[in-house]
Amino acid sequence: MVQQRKCKVAFLVLCIFVLMFTILMQDHLKKSFNKFDVLLATQLTSSTAVDYRKIYQDRSDSITERCLKQKHKSVILKSDRFKYSDKAKVVLCETPKVASTTWQIALLKLGGFNQEINDALMKKWAYQPMPNQLLSHLKTEHEASEIVRNYTSIMITRDPFERLVSAYRNKLSKVADYPYYRDTVGKQIARSQAAEYLHGVSLAVVQSPTPGSLDKSPQFQNLNEEQKRGVIEYAKILKNGEVSFKQFVRFINNYAKRMNVKDMDIHWRPQTDMCLPCNVNYTYVIRFENMVAESNQVLSWIQNDRPIDSPRVNITGGQPPSVKNSRTKRYFEQLDETEVEILRKVYADDFAILGYDPYKYNATKTV
Ligand SMILES: *[C@@H]1O[C@H](CO)[C@@H](O)[C@H](O)[C@H]1NC(C)=O
Ligand SMILES: *[C@@H]1O[C@H](CO)[C@@H](O)[C@H](O)[C@H]1NC(C)=O
Ligand SMILES: *[C@@H]1O[C@H](CO)[C@@H](O)[C@H](O)[C@H]1NC(C)=O
Ligand SMILES: *[C@@H]1O[C@H](CO)[C@@H](O)[C@H](O)[C@H]1NC(C)=O
């Protein structure tokens, strides 16, 4: 009896030991895995850091190569899109919706601008140009091309469709920063496409300031309830300019068919048309998709030969959230494949020259 009990106790003790050993080992194993992760991560970072310059060289080379397939265009460099600093010897192609404010500030600071960048200043810059030097202010195209050739030149690129969604959201949707674009472009789009939404009711009646005009109009009275609701909804859009993404895309597609892309608003004008990568040999082409890391890398090279104790310009904050492509995907699902196909043509040069995949975003509906 006694021996049996002793045996049981010994077995129990053994069990506890085994259990503790397993727990400890697991912890140890986990720790060593973590250590391995960290090690791997540092190795990866340092090896990419070594190859970083080659990445930029390869990017510039690929752009040059893709440009060979394009018709040679003569262009004007003396434009507002090019901002530069004589002091820093840097020229930047500034593309709205592609980290433009961040980089304009970096360029100002590289040139010695030492005013504190606070909210009041940012608000001011939302309405008026930032005080960068502009190639457009030079006297001759020759001077502009010398600066572009002699200085370190930088372009930041972004997936054309992600940029388009970003422009729509910031300028025309209900989450827009300021009502200016809805009041101008948005209302203009709403009026020009009204016929498709008003079921034969005239625009004059829908927009009439006289109360009750709509209800009294015979065309409106003849509509069924669903059509009436549609007209009332659209009357709101006519008033606030808050057009849908689909309407915005139709506007771009019509516009680009009729007009020169050069006349498009800079927020959705193709990047290649503003930054002219087939005419400018950019020293650094930065990808918006990895903007913070790449910008700081480039900024550190630019400042390499500065005295060690002089203030260093860098970009802080996280990577912009628009890297999330789920948002762009959601907007493109509202389109028809024919509409997306026309958009691909409008931005064909951006896709082809800057190296983005035109089929990353498809419409789900097919016609
Ligand atoms: C650009 O470089 C050329 C050749 O070195 C020089 O003659 C010219 O003055 C420079 N121009 C500018 C604007 O820096
Ligand atoms: C860009 O660089 C290439 C090769 O280095 C050269 O052939 C070309 O003329 C340059 N283009 C301009 C506009 O400077
Ligand atoms: C950016 O600059 C600030 C101020 O000079 C410095 O404290 C910070 O460490 C820098 N960050 C990076 C990532 O270089
Ligand atoms: C979009 O469509 C193209 C061509 O039909 C296809 O090759 C591509 O895989 C599609 N992309 C996605 C994300 O579904």
UniProtKB/TrEMBL annotation:
<keyword id="KW-0812">Transmembrane</keyword>
<feature type="transmembrane region" description="Helical">
    <location>
        <begin position="7"/>
        <end position="25"/>
    </location>
</feature>
<dbReference type="Pfam" id="PF03567">
    <property type="entry name" value="Sulfotransfer_2"/>
</dbReference>
<keyword id="KW-0808">Transferase</keyword>
<dbReference type="InterPro" id="IPR005331">
    <property type="entry name" value="Sulfotransferase"/>
</dbReference>
<protein>
    <recommendedName>
        <fullName>Carbohydrate sulfotransferase</fullName>
        <ecNumber>2.8.2.-</ecNumber>
    </recommendedName>
</protein>
<comment type="similarity">
    <text>Belongs to the sulfotransferase 2 family.</text>
</comment>
<keyword id="KW-0472">Membrane</keyword>
<dbReference type="InterPro" id="IPR018011">
    <property type="entry name" value="Carb_sulfotrans_8-10"/>
</dbReference>
<dbReference type="GO" id="GO:0016051">
    <property type="term" value="P:carbohydrate biosynthetic process"/>
</dbReference>
<keyword id="KW-1133">Transmembrane helix</keyword>
<keyword id="KW-0735">Signal-anchor</keyword>
<keyword id="KW-0119">Carbohydrate metabolism</keyword>
<dbReference type="GO" id="GO:0008146">
    <property type="term" value="F:sulfotransferase activity"/>
</dbReference>
<keyword id="KW-0325">Glycoprotein</keyword>
<dbReference type="InterPro" id="IPR027417">
    <property type="entry name" value="P-loop_NTPase"/>
</dbReference>
<keyword id="KW-0333">Golgi apparatus</keyword>
<dbReference type="GO" id="GO:0000139">
    <property type="term" value="C:Golgi membrane"/>
</dbReference>
